[in-house]
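Q: My labmate handed me this sequence with no annotations at all. I'd like to see what the chain might look like in three dimensions before we decide whether it's worth expressing. Could you predict it?
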Amino acid sequence: MIRTIMRPKAPLSRTEILGAVPLLAALGDETRLRLLVQLASEGPGSSAHLTSKAPVSRQAITKHLNVLATAGLLTSERDGRQRVWSIDTKRITHVRKLLKQLSLGWEEMSTRKAVTEPA
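A: Here is what I predict for the chain of 119 residues:
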């Protein structure tokens, strides 16, 4: 017997999806992801400090940091001649919520597929 289950309403609104695009694009680069991991594990850091552990130039790191900041993942403050970068925890909470919603959607789809497939 094959049972069909009605599809639930999409877990993300159009606005949430459009807001997630720059966020996920920013996370889709290895260097930017490494910078986030470094900041998460070590705390705030200057561009110079972040560059010292990266295989790319300071100019490249600055561009990556700016992409992350534009996506709302990082904030920065001037400290003399340096800029100190830190993670914006509100935006990270948003990322976690987004990934959780996507995960729940995938789980529901897997469950529906298992229920609707003939035995």
